[in-house]
């Protein structure tokens, strides 16, 4: 299977400083994006002034892929870290997918894995106890690399102190 990211090989890049906005909710969709480096969150502002994080894209991930068939963005894209983003016009991206079916299938496979991952995360978040959430996450992913526990806390929906207390309990 071909790597769909090759579609962005000659695409221009845009550099975003941490906190910069790539696009806002209701902006017209004109481009497709690939995160080259850094991290970008897709957030939906809520009525109470907070934001709901819908997705976080890191290096090598597509950003706002649902916009492939939308007229406007349904959220804001905000750089969590300094980031480099490759972009191309949506029409160009769609045309490339039609012309390169192996890349289109590669993209479908990537999205299928993302859906599986999100479904697993939803099920983990439904568990009540930190210990149960951690067990489920470890069963699916194995132990994280050094320094990765902070991301595990976020992925299982608990505070880092709560996760560290559970890890300390297990070491005893």
Descriptive account of the structure:
The protein has about 170 residues and is of the alpha+beta class. The protein folds into 2 domains: about 5-100, Jelly Rolls (Sandwich); about 125-170. Helices cover about 40% and strands about 25% of the residues. The chain is built from 5 helices and 8 strands. The chain has helices at about 90-100, 100-125, 130-140, 150-155, 160-170; strands spanning about 15, 20-25, 30-35, 40-45, 50-60, 60-65, 75-80, 85-90. The strands form 2 sheets. Strands 1-8-3-6 form a 4-stranded antiparallel β-sheet. A hairpin with a 5-residue loop joins strand 4 (about 40-45) and strand 5. The longest helix is centred in the middle third of the chain and has 26 residues, at about 100-125. The chain is globular and about 55 Å long. It starts with 12 loop residues before the first strand and ends with a helix. The mean pLDDT is about 95.
Can you give me a brief rundown of this structure?
The chain has 172 residues and is α+β, with helices and mostly antiparallel strands. It is built from five helices and eight strands. It starts with 12 loop residues before the first strand and ends with a helix.
Itemize the secondary structure elements and their pairings.
Layout: E1 13-16, E2 21-23, E3 31-37, E4 39-45, E5 51-58, E6 62-63, E7 76-79, E8 83-89, H1 90-99, H2 101-126, H3 130-141, H4 149-155, H5 160-171
Antiparallel strand pairs: 1-8, 2-7, 3-6, 3-8, 4-5, 4-7
Helix pairs in contact: 1-2, 2-3, 4-5
């Amino acid at each position: 299977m071909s790597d769909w990211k090759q579609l962005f090989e000659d695409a221009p890049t845009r550099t975003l400083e941490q906190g910069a906005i790539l696009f806002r909710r209701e902006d017209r969709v004109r481009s497709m994006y690939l995160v080259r480096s850094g991290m970008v969150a897709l957030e939906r502002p809520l009525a109470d002034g907070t934001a709901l994080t819908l997705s976080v894209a890191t290096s090598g991930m597509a950003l706002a892929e649902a916009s492939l068939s939308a007229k406007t963005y349904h959220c804001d894209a905000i750089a969590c870290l300094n980031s480099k983003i490759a972009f191309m016009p949506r029409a160009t991206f769609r045309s490339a997918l039609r012309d390169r079916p192996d890349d289109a299938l590669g993209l479908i496979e990537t999205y299928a894995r993302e859906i599986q991952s999100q479904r697993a995360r939803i099920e983990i978040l439904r568990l009540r106890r930190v210990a149960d959430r951690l067990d489920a996450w470890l069963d699916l992913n194995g132990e994280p690399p050094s320094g990765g526990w902070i991301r595990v806390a976020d992925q299982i929906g608990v505070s880092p102190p709560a996760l560290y207390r559970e890890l300390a309990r297990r070491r005893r």
